Amino acid sequence: MENIFNIxxxxxxxxxxxxARRDFYAAVAEHFDDEDMKSLFKxxxxxxxxxxxxxxxIRDDLKKPKPMESYxxxxxxxxxxxxxxxxxxKVSPDxxxxxxxxxxxxxxxxxxxxxxxxxxxxxxxxxxxTSKKDVLLQLIEExxxxxxxxxxxxxxxx
Length: 158
Prior knowledge:
Blueprint: H1 7-31, H2 35-61, H3 74-83, H4 86-89, H5 93-99, H6 103-124, H7 133-157
């Protein structure tokens, strides 16, 4: 099952998911009136932006080949379909406003995001070139660290 995905495509998927998490945390920061909550979720949003930059640098180092597309925009549609799932629909402005009322709910969604990323990268590692799996391990470790941070944060609100 090796070589189905180019490692750069896998990193692109990760970048798109990081952007979705970044935007979620930014929305949370604006959603709550409490200044401590705003600051906390702004920090999380900034952390995700740092991940976007880090993963973009990883992708740039991979000398990404031009994607083979059957039609213009095919790869973008594919990436969007991987990112656009039930979990990520929770962060649309309408559903967010109706679903997230307390900081703990936002933290729980953030934990789900991190678990989703770990699972995605772990599964896609089966399809990547063996010589590039270290890149995926780096991505997985980044997400584990973020999930542990959110779990510690969650305990403060329980």
